[in-house]
Every structure is written in structure tokens, then in C-alpha cells.
């Protein structure tokens, strides 16, 4: 009989009594505070020595009282905060093994035991990976179970593969790693949680293609896969392999656009590698995210601001998203030695705030998503504290005080809010990596974003040349389609999801592609979204994993 890890099986009998009493008292439970008060009374009644975690009560309800008549309101109160799935999907991070995770030794990068290069074993996500011995199936299944018991819908899973340089690992390791992620997503974890057993507990497919095909109709569908790598590892062969795996987004460790700084930090790549990687990835339909590091050796506040200006004004660049990793001096790094020898002075909180404020005030375009502003490191990892772990919250106070409204996608997401009518379809056109980009977005009257689509007219299509991926010749590319709001079950209408906004965006993209006289329109579809595009007239190309519709 299956039980989630950390569930106190020895206390199951008393937890059943507590849940049963809560159901009988639901008329008195209107808020989370009411629920907590009732739980305190019941643990005293049954002489239970501790306050049970909500997920344990929710699991007890699912296992023993699923068929009882109970209000949805009480069920929702038993669930933990749902903010993670308010972007329409649940982001699920897994880590590759620590061994031979990256061939380079950048000066700021830590080298720690039992963690991939640039990570520490006490980071929360890494701790989870270690607890599962870096096994992809176990990491994925454990996270899906945890999400479900926290009240998240696990139908749409956005997989992020972290750990070192993904492209440096052997191909057979990477292929099996991704296959096992799909195997885990192909299991029915909801049935396992409720009934305690399931025939497909350890789903093992004979190969990756079979696992991907199964996922098209699985309970937990992989809507996208993101990997982290270096710009100089992006080649035509690597892109073909990433498409076989089902990868849809690539995060590039750019760090800076200053050539002198790249040499100083021993990065091992040059700016020309960033240009080439961005071009190849976008021409193949991938979404591109840059990792950027303000405060590197050799940089200043002024040069970091200029670096950000270049990233979003140079037509050879312009990523779809960024992650800020402000430079921090960590243990087991060469940068710590530089600091001790007065060769490096770290960036201060006020300097970082000056950079970010300037960035959000006048540089950020509406088509950009800022995934993060600082990295979550523990006090045990940081050798020289420079800014607090709650930096984002402090920054939000400064932004509010100065009246700065960041136009990036993350700051404009509708989340659980009700859209304020009327809705408007906005179209932003810009150039990037030799191609023409269209950012189509549905916004409400306050410019909150409900959904968007990234359409690219590739350079090779414009000049009527053949691409190294033949399926993409003479085609426009839908590089991303995303509808925001609470993640809903497939086929279930929500406030923003499954209302036809995605369909309207796709057909607007089709009309633009026709204007450019493209013969086809192609989607770099996540495996779990293929059926959606099939309904819109797209057909799967088995060799490359793209969805193509003739125009």
C-alpha cells in the first residue's frame, strides 16, 4: 500500500478522526483561521501531540473520505497555497548527476561534493535530488506527488532540467534521463494517492519515442522541457538532438556581453558564441533565456546597465526571458581568494538596486519575462554577505515608492485575478537574431496579460534558403504559446484557460505567416500539447517532433 514520504502512518487512525470531525463541522469553517482553530481543538480532544501539516489531512481526506459529501470550499482550505500553478502550469525541476557536469572552472563557480557544478548540496532543490540519488524517475514522481497533495493540478507539467552543462553529458545518459521523466509523468499518481496501489506505479517504456507517445494522453502531460547549457555548446547536431528529446527552451549561460570580463572570469566562450547560439536556437523555434550576472569582476554599475541596454537593443541578441544571478562570493570558489587578496570588491545591495531600477524603468520590453532577480543560496554557502535573501521583496517596496511599474510578462500576469474588460489583442513586432519576431498578447483594460504567442519569420524563410532541419523550410515558427491563470484540467473552462484565447492567437499567427508568404507554419510543441495542435490542423513530423500545418 502506497503512502507519501513523511506521512506519519502510525498516526493515520487519529488523523482519520480529525478529518471526519472537520467534515461534520464544516459549517463553522469559513476561513483558513477557522480551520486552524478547529484543528487545534481536535488535536486537544484526541490528545495528538502536534499540529498536523495540512497536506497530511488532505491526503487522509483523499484516501478515506473522497466519496463523502463535502463542500469544495473546505477541500480548498485543506490545500496549501496554490501560487505555483497560477502561471497555468506546474514548474517541475529535476537535477542531473554531479559527475562530470561541466568542463570549465569559472572564477565565481563553487565546486562542492555531491552537487553539479555551480550548485550546493544544501539548496532546497538539490536536497530533493540528493534524497532521490539524482534518479530522474524518483525526482519527478516525488515532486508530482508533493504538488498534488499541495492542491496543484498536475495535468500540465513544465519540466526544467538543471545541473551543470546539460550538453556536456553523454547522449545516452541524457536520453535515458529524459525518458525516465516521461515515464514518471505517464503514471497515474492521483489514482495511486487515492487508492494506495496502481498497476502502472513504475512505468517503464522500451524507448524514448514510446514514452513520448504515451505522454500525449497521460494524466500529467509534459508541455515543455527546459535545459541549461553554454552558448559554445550549441551546434546544429546539438539542436537536432535536443529536438529528439522534446526540449522546447534553452537557458544560455551568457553572464555578460563584455569580452574583457568574459576572459577575466575564465568563462571559456566569447560574445560571438552567444550571437551564434541565439541565432541557431531561434531559427529552430526554441525559446531562449539568458543567465546574466551583474557585479562580475571588471564590471561597474554603469557597465552593467550598458550591458543590459545592449542585450535588448542589439538585434543579434534579445532573449525571450532572463534570469538575474547577481555575483555572490561563495565558498569553494576562486572569487573568494580574489576577495581575500583585495582583487575583487562585491556588488552592494544599493548598487544592485540601482541597476535593476534602471532596467525596469526604461529597458524592459513587454515581450520579456524576468524569471528571477537573485539566486536562492543559504547562509552556509555565501562567504561574503552582500544583499539579503528577501531582496525581491525589498525591491518591490522601492518600486512601489518610486511608482515604477515593470512591463515584463511576470509582473503583468493575470494570476488568479478576474480580467477587467474589454480584452485587447496587441501585436509587437521587432527584430532578433536576423529574424522577424511578433509578440501577440491578450491583455485586459489594465494591460494584465492573459496569454501570448511568439511568432518568428526565420531568416532562412525570408531569404528563401534551406535550413539544416528540412522540415522547417519555407515555414513561420510558433516558438511559444502560453495562457495564464490557474492551471485547469484538460477540457475544463477556467477564468482564462480553455476559453479559446490560444486558438485565436494561433489563427492570428497564421494570418501573419500568410502575409509573409510562408508555405507552412510550424510549432515547437511540447509532447503533451500535441493533441491540442492536431485539433488546429497541425501534423506531427516524427523525425523532428515539430507540428506543421500547410498554408
Explained architecture:
The protein contains 20 helices and 16 strands. Helix content is 36%, strand content 17%. The chain has four domains: 70 residues; 147 residues, no CATH class; 146 residues, Transcription Regulator spoIIAA (2-Layer Sandwich); 127 residues, 3-Layer(aba) Sandwich (Aminopeptidase), CATH 3.40.630.30. The mean pLDDT is 92. With 551 residues, the protein is an alpha/beta fold. The protein is globular. Helix 1 crosses helix 3 and helix 7 runs parallel beside helix 9. The chain has a seven-stranded parallel beta sheet. Strands 10-11-12-13-14-16-15 form a seven-stranded mixed beta sheet. The longest helix is centred in the first third of the chain and has 15 residues.
Count of domains? 4
* Helical proportion, percent range: 25-40%
Arithmetic mean pLDDT: 92
Oligomer: single chain
Number of DSSP-assigned strands: 16
Through-space gap between termini: 53 Å
Structural class: alpha/beta
Overall shape: it is globular
Strand order, largest beta sheet: 1-2-3-4-5-6-8
The unreliable regions are: none
Individual helix count? 20
Q: Could you describe the largest sheet, including whether it forms a barrel?
A: 7 strands, parallel
Describe the protein's topology:
Blueprint: H1 12-24, H2 32-45, H3 54-64, H4 72-78, E1 90-95, H5 124-131, H6 136-149, E2 156-162, H7 171-185, H8 189-195, H9 208-215, E3 221-229, H10 236-245, E4 249-255, H11 259-264, H12 271-283, E5 287-292, H13 301-311, E6 321-324, E7 329-330, H14 334-340, H15 349-362, E8 369-372, E9 382-384, H16 391-402, H17 409-412, E10 424-432, E11 435-443, E12 449-457, H18 459-462, E13 475-483, H19 501-515, E14 520-523, H20 530-535, E15 539-540, E16 547-550
Parallel strand pairs: 1-2, 2-3, 3-4, 4-5, 5-6, 6-8, 13-14
Antiparallel strand pairs: 7-9, 10-11, 11-12, 12-13, 14-16, 15-16
